[in-house]
Amino acid sequence: MSYDLGTTQEKVDQTFADLKESDKLILLPGGGFLHGKAKRTEGNDSNKIVVSYDSETDPNAISLNDAKKLMTKQINEDIIAQKTQINKGYLSPRGGTPPVIGNNYFLQNGEVYNSQKFSNNGWQYAGYWFVNQYKASSGQTLFGGPLDFQTHVDSGAVGDHIDVDHIHIDGWASAGLIIYPNTGYQRVISYDSSRPELTYYTYQALPGTTYSAKGTGVSG
């Protein structure tokens, strides 16, 4: 298979299509870009917030243009690596195993996580679970309900812990909601209301494949 470096800009533009030129983004420590606010947990205690982000106030936030330049460089490096069979480039957390339980990002309404690129090495999972955050009529902050996901360049799937177990443990060829590029955001909700976390995964992804997760701010 051959890859055209000239398509890189199109891939980058697809990833950030919903953002305005004036928007700021945070390049997260493990990779990926965040626009808006989010809270992250780590380990088995999903109630323990380890860090909070706000792209509007973070002094290290970068412009959309800078984020596009960075992703363009990374995608081109990845394509060259595929051609020469050299494993190089900067990847956000992902791998052949699902994310650790409790490694969550909580996204409020309209807040977007844009991943870095995936490789085309078998099953690849996002490094995080994502949880929607919304306000009850009483004003109380609650967690759960649907999230919006979209994929760029190549298809992928979104699922909850049941779907991921079917793929990773049971060896199913497919589970969860399959999403396709150039179709916009698709709304996904966990089958298990007590475990609302969702994650993205893909198989043999084309170079430059990324996904976006967005909070909906609604309960269902």
What tags apply to this protein structure?
disordered N terminus, 220 residues, alpha+beta, 5-stranded mixed beta sheet, 7-stranded antiparallel beta sheet, 32% strand
Task: Please provide a written account of the structure.
The protein is an alpha+beta fold. The chain has one domain. It contains 3 helices and 17 strands. The chain is globular, with a radius of gyration of 17 Å. It starts with 7 loop residues before the first helix and ends in a 5-residue tail after the last strand. The model is unreliable at about 1-5 and about 85-90 (pLDDT under 50).
In order across it, which strands form the biggest sheet?
A: 5-1-2-8-17-12-15
Mean pLDDT: 85
Name the helix and strand elements from N-terminus to C-terminus, one letter apiece. Answer: HEEEEEHEEEEEEEEHEEEE
Task: Outline the biggest β-sheet.
Answer: 7 strands, antiparallel
Q: Tell me the distance between the termini.
A: 42 Å
The domain tally reads 1
Q: Write down how many β-strands occur, each being a DSSP E stretch of 2 or more residues.
A: 17
> How much helix is in the residues?
10-25%
Please report which band the strand proportion falls in: under 5%, 5-15%, 15-25%, 25-35%, 35-45% or over 45%.
25-35%
Count of helical stretches: 3
Q: What are the low-pLDDT stretches, counting only 5+ consecutive residues below 50?
A: 1-6, 85-92
Radius of gyration from the alpha-carbon trace, in angstroms: 17 Å
**Large-scale geometry:** globular
**Oligomeric state of the chains?**
single chain
**What structural class do you assign from the helix and strand content?**
alpha+beta
